[in-house]
Amino acid sequence: MNKEYDIIVVGAGPAGSMAARFAAERGVSVLMLEKDRDVGYPVRCGEAISKAGVEEFIQSDDKWIASRISKFSFNAPDGTEVIIEFGEAGYVLERRIFDYELARTAAEAGADILTRAYVNGLLFDSDGKVSGVKYEYNGEQKEIKSKIVIAADGVESRVGRWAGLKTHIDFRDMESAVQITAANIPVDQNTLYFYFGKDVAPNGYFWIFPKGHNKANIGLGVSGIIGKKKSAQSFLDDFMNKHYPNAPVLTKIAGGVPCSVTLDKISGPGIMLVGDAARQVNPLSGGGIASGMIGGSIAGRIAAEAIKMNKLEHILTYDKAWHDRLGKRHETFNRIKEGIYNFSDEKFNSIAHSVLKIPIEKRTLGKVFTTALMNNPSLLLDIAKVFVI
Amino acid sequence: MSDSEIKYRMAKTGKLMIEILPDRCDYCGCCVGVCPEDAIELKEAEIFIIDPRCTNCAKCVWSCPIEVIKFNKEGVQAH
After folding, report:
1. Which of the residue ranges A207-216, A303-312, B2-11, B17-26 would you say has the lowest mean pLDDT?
2. CB-closest option in A35, A171, A233 to B62
3. Per-residue confidence at A388, pLDDT binned at 50, 70, 90?
């Protein structure tokens, strides 16, 4: 370990690892700190991702692919199932291996990595610029200086807050989730299953994502508005008792998904935010692996450029770069989310019935959305933007 | 006391009424993300409320997916 670094990345999830890698590849010194004992564990995630989302950053590898996805199954509250077929569209990951491999690519690019290092404060210059981190390691309080800090500290992010950015997430936008890995779930191993309706997952969806050999990642998230009355845990118990009362549960964990638009500001003097910490999750799907990696890679690149140009204010261009690449799309997705997830059960049922009339070979996600919007014409403009622009 | 600390104290209704049951906590961070006051400390497997900052707003209670944060009107012992 060096005495100081050009860049310190806080958090070694997908966003942190990509920030570290894209910076280190450009020849600057990088240290990535992880509070947990292991990179990639515990897994708090549904683990589904599109193939394109992965392959922008790492070559597909069977050791972290639990299953290959070619179909979506949408299930309306009355039990109507709508199947959409794709080519090989994506994967369900073994994230505990996937995250580890991403961190390895950062290490290969030259980044130093330290686990069990809990960041609990920031260092500041006399002019208020972030200039390093305070952290606890092996029971000792330590400090280390850097020119730039990249906060990839997840849904529970506090680093950005300490740097003076507004990172607090409205409790209505927090999808508080419970997720299990269960065995003996005899579903098609190449299909992602989504369930809608106020009894299973109000204002969101319940998922069953196959992981091979009839194992499945199963869970749901509920907004704080719903959580006031009934917790995610309670919804999950109800679903499992009804559909798979005897399924052995191999893992069970809670997690949070910030389903909103990106924060207003994701950079400041000496500080950049990436991944869940920046609220870079796709608010419609709740997917954050691919978008976090994109955010991380942009931040890592810009941070390295800033160091090499010796012009630290260059990092402030990150906000626009992110907005142009994905932030703007997320704003549209968020409007669609607010429209769709407020549908009544009757509306979901009637949409499912309409979509079933489209022959399966002609069914696309776009057509499903188009059908959905006949039930809510005000969404027309937003949906048109997603598929046209 | 800083201005923000005074604000925290004034907003408080008196005693701390939010209780995290640490033995059942999964350390997922939902509560930390929604806390408007940065009043929750979360390490790898350790969590507690920073009493002087907590305003008993209960957003953490509503956001806990596994019901391990409770609102206790009687008040709880600070960490």
Report:
1. B2-11
2. A171
3. very low
Asked whether the predicted pLDDT for residue B7 surpasses 60, the reply is no
User: For residues A10 and A119, is the Cβ–Cβ distance under 8 A?
Assistant: yes
Tell me how far apart the alpha carbons of residues A113 and A219 are, in angstroms, rounded to a whole number: 31
Chain A interface includes B65 (CB < 8 A): yes
Q: Identify any residues that bridge with B8 across adjacent strands, giving them in sequence order.
A: none
Residues B21, A139, A253, A299, CA torsion sign: positive
Q: Which of B33, B44, B59 sits opposite A37 (nearest CB)?
A: B44
Other Cβ atoms less than 10 A from the Cβ of A174: the count is: 29
What is the rounded CA–CA span in Å between residue A154 and residue A176?
14
Residue of A nearest to B30 (CA): A256
Domain assignment present for residue B46? The answer is yes
Is B67 within 8 Å of A231 when comparing Cβ atoms? Answer: yes
pLDDT score recorded for residue A200: 96
Q: State the number of CA atoms in the 13 A half-sphere of A376 facing the CB.
A: 21
Shortest distance, CA A187 to any CA of chain B (angstroms): 26
- The rounded radius of gyration (Å) of the Cα atoms in chain B is 12
Q: Quick one: which H or E segment has residue A98?
A: helix A95-108
Residues of chain A whose C-beta is under 8 A from some C-beta in B? Answer: 35-37, 44, 116, 118, 136, 154-158, 161, 168-171, 174, 176-178, 221-222, 224-225, 227-228, 231-234, 253-256, 258
Q: Is B16 on the interface with A (CB under 8 A)?
A: no
Domains and CATH numbers, chain A: 4-43+96-169+262-326 (3.50.50.60), 68-91+171-258 (3.30.9.10), 337-388 (no CATH)
Buried b (16+ CB within 10 A) or exposed e, B10-21: eebeeebbbbbe
CATH number at residue B33: 3.30.70.20
Interatomic CA distance for residues B36 and B57, integer angstroms: 9
Position A374 scores a pLDDT of: 65
Chain B residues with CB under 8 Å of A286 CB are none
Per the structure, the complete domain to which residue B13 belongs is given by 3-71
Q: Please tell me which of the candidates A36, A169, A177 has its beta carbon nearest to residue B34.
A: A169
ipTM, two decimals: 0.88
The share of chain A scoring above pLDDT 90, in percent, equals: 80
